[in-house]
From TrEMBL:
Coiled coil: none
GO molecular function term, any single one: identical protein binding
InterPro entries for the chain: Gly/Sar_N_MeTrfase, Methyltransf_11, Methyltransf_25, SAM-dependent_MTases_sf
Pathway the protein takes part in: Amine and polyamine biosynthesis; betaine biosynthesis via glycine pathway; betaine from glycine: step 3/3
Protein name listed in UniProt: Glycine/sarcosine N-methyltransferase
PANTHER family: GLYCINE N-METHYLTRANSFERASE
Methyltransferase domain sequence ranges: 72-169
Record keywords, A-Z: Methyltransferase, S-adenosyl-L-methionine, Transferase
A single BP term in Gene Ontology: S-adenosylhomocysteine metabolic process
PROSITE patterns, per the entry: SAM_GNMT
A GO CC annotation given for this chain: cytosol
Length: 561
């Protein structure tokens, strides 16, 4: 068979085709000569669908659901593993692959499971020629991107992915940890992607331009793939230069990892988006929506490094300090005190956390009570971290994560027994609307319980400008505001606690920890500008509390039965 025939009629190939020097075959289109039907038919022995599903869990499903994605393009569907899983999870999936044999096998696998997959053969370099419409998300998994040997092809493929996504689209792309392979030699936990017990997948040759993998099967057959061993930071740079606004990288489906440990890296890249389209609103005077400011702040690497380090990555709310000066312990005491104020909660209850942050409160509440919970939060960075914690705690069947704003809660009326929030409502300039949404989603007899850094009822807003400036706020609520706004909706006031001393102690302790861990935070990636501004901002909050301008404590209201 001629090389031309191999390229144009790959379905007829019975053997892999290489030149006299296989190590010289470093051309992007060569994959068509490698994925012959006999190899594709054995691919599922290599992958082991059940083992792969157990190892990666809900990782991709959770990320897509948390962002409200529905229409997904699987551009490297292979034999259909992810296309099938995502379809079964309720996503509208199109399965594509450059290999006709892989597309045919994916369709066959879907049919065997009672699904009719929407399939298409598409080379990424001309992706938009072969697909229709725009997608909420694109997944490119199974180390597939490393079939692109030329940088021009990699850049062109990413441009095609970018163009195929909607304005707020998401790209999830993975790769082998070639950094470790190139720098330290090949080793593998053989745990995540290649899960077959009887199959080996190891390189026979590795250099900076080629990784030649050999796949050996129990019947003695062997197949090879020539791939380009791209490094992690190079891939991140390509994604950013292609126009993706933010790139988060995970190792083996974990939110944290040591650089040389994972077998695979997973990059989650967000396309540049217009916040106006995302939230559907803008202030009348054209000023930036405060929700944009909040989202950008908490999604920043500076804020994520600071809060996860100082608070321990569980939550970021004010603690109770009468019996401890440890921030983590004090934060837990706040959660416990709020749970204790509620009527007994059991496994039949549903709780909505508005502004859930890292989700520690709901993980604690669910473990203690058995209730089901939804974490609504504006920061995708925190949501992804929360999802990892939920998976690690084996609570995926009990806690859902939603990316969104609490002025427009995407939940049905009268759905929850409790609406919960900790130190989040200050980030809204429509706090009455937030309370109205809480009223709407609560069942009759349901409870609204929250804490929020507030200004005292008689505070002069002009005296609080340094406090506002720390988080780019334009106001704070007050105890009287929350009481009057809640009662106007029909809520009954159960309790308005005065515990401003805890607010004062909290911000003082956080500032102490910031200064004590300044170099550690810098080494972790936080900028001096951010840390210095934070130190001044925290001091301003302490001063404002000492001067009587602030208030804080549990605010508890009930919707009449």
């Amino acid at each position: 068979m001629t090389d031309n025939r191999a390229e144009t009629d790959e379905l007829a190939l019975t053997q892999q085709v290489y030149s006299e020097d296989p190590l010289a075959d470093r051309e992007t289109g060569h994959y068509r000569k490698e994925y012959v039907k006999a190899f594709v038919d054995k691919w599922d022995e290599l992958i082991d669908w059940r083992g792969r599903a157990e190892s990666e869990g809900q990782f991709f499903i959770d990320i897509l659901r948390a962002r409200g994605k529905e229409r997904v393009l699987d551009v490297a569907c292979g034999t259909g593993f992810h296309s099938v899983r995502l379809t079964e999870a309720g996503f509208d999936v199109t399965a594509a692959d450059g290999s006709a044999n892989m597309v045919a096998k994916a369709f066959e696998n879907g049919k065997r499971r009672g699904l009719i997959l929407k399939t298409t053969q598409a080379d990424w370099r001309w992706l938009n020629r072969d697909i229709a419409g725009k997608y909420d998300a694109i997944v490119c998994l199974g180390n597939s991107f490393t079939h692109l040997h030329e940088e021009s092809d990699r850049r062109r493929a990413l441009a095609e992915f970018y163009a195929a996504l909607k304005h707020d689209g998401l790209l999830i792309l993975d790769q082998r940890n070639y950094d470790a392979m190139l720098d330290n030699g090949f080793s593998t936990k053989h745990k995540y992607y290649y899960c077959g017990d009887q199959v080996t997948a190891e390189p026979s040759h590795v250099d900076e331009g080629l990784c030649r993998m050999v796949y050996s099967f129990p019947d003695g057959s062997e197949y090879t793939l020539n791939m380009c061993p791209i490094r992690k930071n190079y891939m991140r740079r390509l994604l950013q230069e292609a126009g993706f606004e933010r790139v988060r990288t995970y190792g083996d489906f974990q939110e944290t990892y040591a650089e040389d440990e994972p077998d695979f890296f997973i990059h989650v890249a967000e396309k540049s988006a217009l916040h106006l389209v995302r939230w559907g609103d803008v202030s009348e005077n054209g000023a930036q929506d405060i929700r944009d400011i909040t989202e950008d702040y908490y999604d920043s690497d500076d804020a994520d490094t600071f809060y996860s380090t100082i608070w321990g990555g569980e939550d970021l709310h004010i603690g109770r300090y009468s019996e401890t000066d440890d921030i983590r312990t004090a934060s837990d005491r706040t959660i416990e005190s709020m749970i204790d104020r509620l009527p007994q909660i059991d496994s039949t209850a549903r709780v909505l956390d508005m502004g859930a942050g890292y989700g520690g409160a709901m993980r604690t509440l669910v473990r203690k009570t058995g209730a089901e919970a939804v974490c609504l939060n504006i920061s995708e960075t925190q949501n992804e971290y929360n999802l990892g914690k939920i998976r690690a705690a084996k609570l995926t069947d009990k806690i859902g994560v939603r990316h969104g704003v609490f002025e427009e809660v995407q939940e049905a009326d009268a759905r929850f027994d409790v609406v919960w929030s900790q130190d989040a409502f200050l980030h809204s300039d429509q706090r009455a609307k937030v309370l109205a949404e809480a009223w709407r989603v609560l069942k009759p007899g349901g409870h609204l319980i929250f804490t929020d850094p507030m200004q005292s009822d008689d505070a002069d807003p002009a005296m609080l400008q340094p406090v506002y400036d720390r988080l780019q706020l334009n106001s704070l609520g007050s105890p009287s505001f929350y009481r009057e706004a809640a009662e106007a909706l029909g809520f009954e006031t159960v309790e308005q606690e005065d515990a401003v001393a805890d607010l004062r102690s909290h911000y003082a302790r956080v500032r102490e920890e910031l200064l004590a861990n300044y170099e550690k935070l810098r080494e972790a990636g936080a900028s001096t500008q951010y840390l210095d501004k934070m130190a001044v901002g925290l001091e301003n909050w302490v001063k404002a509390a000492d001067e009587g301008h602030l208030a804080w404590g549990v605010q508890h209201f009930r919707k009449p039965a």
